[in-house]
Amino acid sequence: MSASETVTVERLEALLRGDAPRTPAEERRAALLGELRAGALDAPQALRARVLASGAAPRRRLALPPRRLALAVVPLAAAAAVVTAVVHGIVGSSASSPRPVAAQEPGGVVHGSGTSVPRGAATSAPPAPAGAPFQKLPSTGNGARLQHTDASLEVQVGEADRVSSATTKATRIAAELGGYARSVQFDSSQDGSSSAQLDLRVPAQNARTALARLETLGTVVSQTLSQKDLERLFTAETGRIAQLRRRVAALAKALADPSLPEAERVLLRLRLAEARRSLAQALAARRGTVAAAADARISLLLTTKPKAAVVPPQQGRLGRIIRSAAGFLALEGTIALYALVVLSPLLALATLVWWLARLRRRREERRLLAA
């Protein structure tokens, strides 16, 4: 091909766009392009088979559509949850079968000395039955010595309406023995229970008589008695009082000297005032000691008898299985609901991505079909 027949790339593109040829070479090229456009090319059958064989294999779909798959999975999951709950109920009811429990008293065993054995502690002897007499209080100390007596008593009087009458009788007993009720606290509730707390004062020589009469108000639950010897304290206070009196007398005698300088007189007056104040305090302390020895303190608690506890009926094995299975099924439902709440944003995002991809694929298919 000569240089005059050469056609540049720009002129070929212009001829393809439909420009008129300028040279004989361009006329031949334009004629060739027209033949190519007008001609129908038919590929050989062997070439078609090779192209189809080299193409991508068609995608396989699931045997079940998504809706049918969901309808099949949900009942299977529910059935599996129910079966698991039933198995858990059977195993749990076997492990938590009730055992016989020995009956226990409402409180500890209380001895006559006031020492109580806590609930559940081992004892060498069985507890005394209700209404059994308590041991008599021991006789301690010497009546000629100063002693402080402190006693406490808890008595059950039966019904709630008897607490009020027993309180009246207790205050009357203290008054008949030369004492009085320092405080009385009465409590009553709507459930029918009542109690009364009394702080009684009786002469020390009548303390045992008062305790013996108070025990007759009902059933004794506990009682304590403590005595503290005050003789040594009284002797020490008396010796201090005598010493202070001698000091007061000596200071007063020194102040009576007319030749005493004024400075020393002022100092002695201060010492005399201090000694008199100490003497007054010592006298008051000794009077308190004597008063403590003169009156005995008795703390009385009046209560009603506790009602018998109602024992709930024991459930059978089937009832325990149903209750355990229902509880486990509720736990499974709670876990499933929690998982759904946590995973719902992810599921919504995945659904949106799938919908956008499907929409894009449909648009591409429509554009290819339109071409």
Q: In order across it, which strands form the biggest sheet?
A: 4-5-7-3-6
Count every helix, treating DSSP H or I runs of 4 or more residues as helices. 9
The amount of helix comes to 40-55%
Mean pLDDT: 75
Shape: elongated
Instruction: Name the assembly state.
Output: single chain
Terminal-residue CA separation: 40 Å
Q: Which structural class fits the helix and strand makeup?
A: alpha+beta
Strand content: 5-15%
Radius of gyration: 56 Å
| Pattern of helices and strands | HHHHEEEHEEHEHHEH
Low-pLDDT regions: 100-135, 137-141
Question: Total number of β-strand segments?
Answer: 7
The profile of the biggest β sheet is:
5 strands, mixed
Task: Lay out the secondary structure.
Layout: H1 9-17, H2 24-38, H3 45-54, H4 66-95, E1 109-110, E2 116-117, E3 147-156, H5 161-176, E4 180-188, E5 194-203, H6 207-214, E6 219-229, H7 231-255, H8 262-294, E7 295-303, H9 317-370
Parallel strand pairs: 3-7
Antiparallel strand pairs: 1-2, 3-6, 4-5, 5-7
Helix pairs in contact: 1-2, 4-9, 7-8
Structure description:
By secondary structure, the protein is an alpha+beta fold. It has helices at residues 9-17, 24-38, 45-54, 66-95, 161-176, 207-214, 231-255, 262-294, 317-370; strands spanning 109-110, 116-117, 147-156, 180-188, 194-203, 219-229, 295-303. Helix 4 packs antiparallel against helix 9 (317-370). The longest helix is centred in the C-terminal third of the chain and has 54 residues, at 317-370. Residues 100-135 and 137-141 have low confidence and may be disordered.
